[in-house]
Amino acid sequence: MSTHADPYGIVVGYDGSPEARRAVEWAAAEAGRSGSRLQIVTTYEITWPGAYYAAVAEQVDAAREAAEAILADITAEVRGRSAVDVYGVCAASSAAATLLDLGDAGAHMLVVGNRGAGGLANLLLGSVSQQVATHAKVPVAVVRGRPDPSFGPVVVGVDGSASGDSALGLAFEAARERGRALVAVRAYPADHTDEAAERAALDDALANWSGKFPDVPVAQLVAAGRPAAVLVDASRTATLVVVGSRGHGGFTGLLLGSVGLQLMHHADCPVLIVH
Asked: Which residues are CB-contacts of 228 (< 8 A; sequence separation ≥ 6)?
């Protein structure tokens, strides 16, 4: 199958795990709301030395057939219960590399579960999910938390950074598509006493986007505390949390800030990381 990405498509990774199934369900709903095509990606990778010898061709074929079978099942399931334009891709490569390549090829969002079939039970976030969320150049949704986070507002972290402003734009879009309110959150150190200045900064950040999305109700939350902790707490009643990939205070060499990483591990609803 081709690994060509629809320039307006949503790409979701699937490996047969319950977490990946939830990611596909979320991605299908997102594609339905936005009118996007949905591309479901399943990969298989033979890394042991014997894979390079003809004698084990049947094992390679078996791996491919197993991957194609689970891909066919989930694709048929999505087609059977929604009107989303969906197609599948089965690739003989690593999952993270394939998803990142499709992001580079033009997909407008990548979607991953919080842990795949290969993860250990005590790992909160799988290596594939973290690699994709860290290195992608397009927004990445990590589907985690409550089984059906269909209620509550869209929550967005606001810190005045460039990626934070991009996150605001996508958060407004997400709120409008869902018919939800938007809660804009700005956190500041507990020993910082100028709360009025923080509220003014939040007002400034919202002004441009509120004018572009006048139909989206907006609430503001200015809170003392660590941004990650404040946003994790807000996620308990949210349908989606949106943050920039790296905000103020991070080292420029880091591709994903600590707030995004902590949300990917601890949020109680899906998290959208905006690069």
From this structure: 258, 259, 262, 263, 266
Higher local confidence (pLDDT), 189 or 101 = 101
User: Residue 34's closest CA among 166, 146, 170, 150?
Assistant: 170
Identify which of 188, 234, 183 has the alpha carbon closest to the alpha carbon of residue 206.
183
* 109-113 and 10-13 beta bridge pairing: parallel
Q: Among residues 25, 41, 151, 40, which one has the least CA distance to residue 82? A: 25
> How far is the C-alpha of 178 from the C-alpha of 48, rounded, in Å?
46
Domains of the chain from N-terminus onward: 10-143 (3.40.50.620), 154-274 (3.40.50.12370)
Residue linked to tokens 């991070």: 250
Q: Identify which of 94, 167, 106 has the alpha carbon closest to the alpha carbon of residue 131.
A: 94
Q: Where are the alpha helices (DSSP H) in the chain?
A: 18-34, 57-81, 95-105, 127-135, 162-178, 195-212, 227-235, 258-266
Contacts of 5 (CB under 8 A, 6+ apart): 11, 39, 102, 103, 105, 106, 107
pTM: 0.88
Q: What is the pLDDT of residue 2?
A: 41
Q: Which residues does 114 contact at the CB level (< 8 Å), separation at least 6? A: 19, 124, 125, 126, 129, 142, 143, 144, 264
DSSP class of 47: -
Q: List pLDDT tens digits, range 40-80.
A: 999 987 666 555 565 567 778 888 999 999 999 999 999 99
Nearest-angstrom CA–CA distance, 196 and 42: 50
